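Annotated sample (chain length 203).
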Amino acid sequence: MSIFSRKSETPAAAEPVFDAATTAVADITGDYTIDASHSRIGFSARHAMVTTVRGAFKEFEGTAHIDTANPSASHVSLTIKTASIDTGSADRDGHLTSADFFDAGTNPEITFRSTKVEKVDDDTWAITGDLTIAGTTKPVTIAFDETGSAQDPFGNLRVGFEGGTAINRKDWGLTWNAALETGGVLVSEKIKLEFDVSAIKNA
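Output written by the structure step:
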């Protein structure tokens, strides 16, 4: 659901990384709830301009209405618990949830509410919506590729999507940084957002 497609650019001769996707239904139209235990909302940023630090939010919930015949009638809602950020370092996580960055005590949730949904091609969607971080709301567009559908052993119909985009954290007031003696800054302003979503169709 966006202008940014994560389709693989791996040469055709290369071995696929995962098993082939499955298709349980020809039409995925319906109402869905995100299965957080089998989904990931991640991000990455450059640190000291020499390496990439990655993290994810561990607590979130979301819903989606998918209409393949009329994509504009589709909509998505996502709520993330700010304090659930996890970068593998307790000290760094504590700094990120402090007033220098997210100020999780004042802003306990990050939200995304779609305002426009488009179908780019057979399996790519573009979702534009309002992203609210630290009390500031700005529009973003996220591209999603359908990764298949499946009937799981518990009788659930699942659909999968992978997507991503890049944002400038300063647009949401996340301006903390430190200058390096060699030039540049400690934390990049550009942040990549990554979404791996498994959603279960509502009964």
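Annotation: DSSP finds one helix and eleven strands in the chain.
Annotation: The first helix runs from residue 90 to 96.
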